[in-house]
Amino acid sequence: MWLQIVGKIRMAHAPTVNHWWHVTLYVSPRGLTTSPIPHDLGSFDMEFDFIDHSLRIRTSDGRERHVTLEAKPVAGFYSEIMCALGELSIDTHIHAKPNEVDPAVPFAEDYRHAAYDPRAAQLFWGQLLQADRVIGEFRSRFVGKASPVQFFWGGMDLACSRFSGRPAPPHTGSGRPNFPSWIEREAYTHELASCGFWPGGGEEGAFYAYAYPEPPGFADYPIRPAAAYYHRDLGEYVLPYEAVAEAADPDHMLMEFLDTTYAAVADLADWDRTALETDPRHGPRRTS
């Protein structure tokens, strides 16, 4: 809920970017950050620091406020953060209810959710650090349109998408609670192959990969490693985090998953791979 509040603050001030890229957070050396957010003639940023367990709000005129990350109700955190923004003269109005959960209790009324486990938060950030590093390397091998490696606070997933350049059929919505279908239509306006990491799908979370639209044969494509599988209920490939963490070469195993699931999309949907891909060490991709 705290991540949703901060994400909605970024969304309230940042200019709109296609596929909702203006609402996300990013992995930082200390936690998760908004990156600079424009405000009047300057900017500010907000960072969850999972080392010192503090939310830092910094402005371009040198002022700063902190909100302690500790066990407290969502309502208390919401009040503290809006008060801090007011002290910094950052007038902010958000849709003050969470998305993608049911029930969607307004932040100011949520006294039920009040837990904070510093160790768990730090461990999750450690997972995000490793995932961000390898997925960032995977992203660098694509010269077509690609998203940043970014954290979506609604689904709690770190994601990166590659695009073929072709428009996609209108998305009809996934049925997630408190998540209007028009939001997904904007997110999926063009063909994509998406990958990422989220806390579900395994005992310690999972890496995932999917396509929109999903080409025929995608679920049966020969991907690697052997620990990965197609989850028919989710409509995506899943690789449990613990399988990667326990591998002799975790980076190689994850990159193999990212490469083969992307190849499944690109080959089955007839993407122009020669034009879209590159090896950063050797220049543009060439076929023999």
Quick structural summary:
The chain is α+β, with helices and mostly antiparallel strands and 288 residues long.
Written description of the protein model:
The chain is of the alpha+beta class. It has 2 domains: 2-116, no CATH class; 119-284, no CATH class. It is 29% helix and 24% strand. The protein contains 7 helices and 14 strands. It has helices spanning 2-13, 74-87, 118-139, 181-187, 241-245, 250-268, 273-276; strands at 26-27, 31-33, 37-39, 42-49, 54-59, 64-68, 150-152, 157-167, 190-198, 206-212, 229-231, 236-240, 278-279, 283-284. The strands form 3 sheets. Strands 1, 2, 3, 4, 5 and 6 form a 6-stranded antiparallel beta sheet that branches. Strands 7-8-9-10-12-11 form a 6-stranded antiparallel beta sheet. A hairpin with a 3-residue loop joins strand 1 and strand 2 (31-33). The chain is globular and about 55 Å long.
